[in-house]
Amino acid sequence: MIFRGPYPDVTIPEVSLTEFIFSSTPQLKDKPALIDGPTGRTLTYGQFEDAARRVATGLAKKGFKKGEVLGIFSVNCPEYGVLFHAVALLGGINTTLNPLYTAEEAKAQLKNAGAKFLVTAAPFIEKARTAAAAANIEELFVFGEAEGATPFASLLENDPNPPAVSINPREDLVALPYSSGTTGLPKGVMLTHYNLVANMRQMDGLDYFHQDDTLLCVLPLFHIYGLVVVLNGNELAGVLSERDCVRQGLAAGKALDAITVSQIMVRDVVSVDLQHTFADCLRLMHARGIRHLPVMRNNRVVAVISVRDLMGEAVEHHRRVISELERERLTIFTSTA
User: 17-290, which class in CATH?
Assistant: First the structure.
């Protein structure tokens, strides 16, 4: 017997990931797509795609080709998404690394994945440099600046016309995240363009997110959940997450613009971190229209706090709840809907 869900079957287009993701750019090109909360730095949809294309051109000039692997060893930032899609445009493969890895752990994944280039963030440059040398990485890039690494910004200085690449969505890999190694050493999970597009189409019709919703998320983009469901799937279905993995960062605010059921794009992303005060977080949530705030304990939602209540009569009660959670060093801010 076949059991069917309440939603209709989905069709999965035979297109590359970037073709699928960027299909709505013309309609949304002037809307904010990514906002770095602490600085206010903003990328519109048009700027996001333009940046991905410029980085792709730069990588191609460096000799990066279809089927080759690039490692991303960083906390979340707007450039993370730009880089991921630049690699995808060239038919390359992204292998994402936990930024809390030691140099030895990073080396093991880079060697196993056969990575050619590595991109990291300045706080991890020392272990990235060690891992890159041990894994025979040809060039190390860094978000920002660090000695011994090529600034990622230099890749943005190229034209937005990368070489055309023929991609077979069913066969060509675009992502190579690694398992957590629960039953042994971490293992690479080979994901094609078709795999990721299929995941995004599976989320259509779930009615999770609506136009002008604003969501809060801290999922790390190196993890498959953040990578597929949040960064890519929710560029179409609703949310993009950012997280500072070192500071237990908090990513905020994604207002959505519905184009079609399968083309709801992220309008803006705002990130703050837990160094902000409770009042700062409240003001940000209120300003961005965030309506609900899940509380997590051991990776499970244990409560959902109404931001309206926080702003009203129940504020003192929830202050005590959050203070208790903070004392226990629990993650208190995560995805909202």
Answer: alpha beta
